[in-house]
């Protein structure tokens, strides 16, 4: 008699939910259980800023796969249920829903616990172990709902962190007519996505539309009636302090992998604090997989360990883990490209690979080109700037950044090139589609490669 494979998944986010779906597709008979500590089935975290802005009309629209959907697929989803312990020798998971203890056996376990918000140390930010009233995070649906409920009576808001999510929030609140202050401890905005020369125009726009403080640390909060009233920021160079009145503070300073359960059973944790996984998404322990934001994997170009923090990657991991746990075979590419994009304050931004400040072990030459999305004679062309990085040794493309029209789709072409070890000499000759109302004869993406190739050739001479 066929024995049903018992698959347990911890966490029903992008990674865990996808893993369940692919396990079901791969094996119609397996017994699949998901434990999710929150109260929602699989929803899009990435869409949260757009409910705040009103572009998406309701939080409910973000639910991608409902409880009913999982039920129809014969996947048992426990909501409001926290996994408290894994027993790896007995192959048992212990979970808690209110006061009820649930004990379940597994053949294959998939850890998809995501990440938790990183909160920098700021004096007075906690009261009775909770964030002071008016101070918010944006990681979960409940975080977003709490923030949303405050927007109507907010006149001044401050945001700590000028990364992709910080600027998405800033843009949302700015569009609501709120006076925005952005505090960033690094000397530049979007430090993990764009080089300084590429982010310059966005920084200039922010300086006009918001109060932007780069190179500043939020050191202290002052409250009135237990609610945030002021934030004190300090210039990192001069130590000079400044007080900023604020009705609201949003912390967007990144996240840390949630690895508690995995660490306790001895899954190898990497340099970057994530669970180390293989091409099959296996952890260091047999029959135990991990996916998404709780993991770490290699960078495709540098081979250096890198943490995951993107929904696209979590879903790809979920596909791999679901297929593999259910007896199929799915290998991840040998590394991560970190292809990413966003839009704020009128700028579409996208990048693939590491920025100049981070890509240390590979000598890189850069080519940059600014042009239009349409031929110069056709009305309505939009600016697009692309910068491409090329390995000085072998001419392979290692990174690209774009700001402007269709940045993401253009960056996807570079992602394809990097993943297939394409040399700049070849990409510069790519035959791109052309028609006056759609695209120019030679696309900015190939023109940026022309510039990079020239520089690369000069180095070679
Ligand atoms: C505001 C915002 C905007 C974003 N925008 C983008 C974007 O535009 N593009 C992009 O690629 N990425 C974006 N991301 C990142 C993306 O959302 C994450 O990479 C993705 O959600 C990771 O999926 P995950 O399944 O690994 O983790 P999560 O989605 O965090 O899911 C983990 C789940 O595990 C549950 N859990 C944890 N511990 C336990 C336990 N012990 N027992 C039971 N359940 C547990 C949690 O409750 C959670 O639901 C954004 C993130 C945020 C917060």
What features would you describe in this structure?
The chain has 461 residues and is α/β, with parallel strands linked by helices. Helices cover 25% and strands 31% of the residues. The chain has a 5-stranded parallel β-sheet. A 5-stranded parallel β-sheet has the order 13-20-14-15-16. The mean pLDDT is 97. Flavin-adenine dinucleotide binds next to helix 1, helix 2, strand 6 and helix 8.
- The span between the termini is 69 Å
State the share of residues found in helices, binned by percent: 10-25%
Q: What fraction strand? A: 25-35%
Radius of gyration: 24 Å
Biggest sheet details:
5 strands, parallel
Total beta-strand segments: 30
Question: What is the 3D form?
Answer: globular
Mean pLDDT: 97
What small ligands are held by the chains?
flavin-adenine dinucleotide
Structural class: alpha/beta
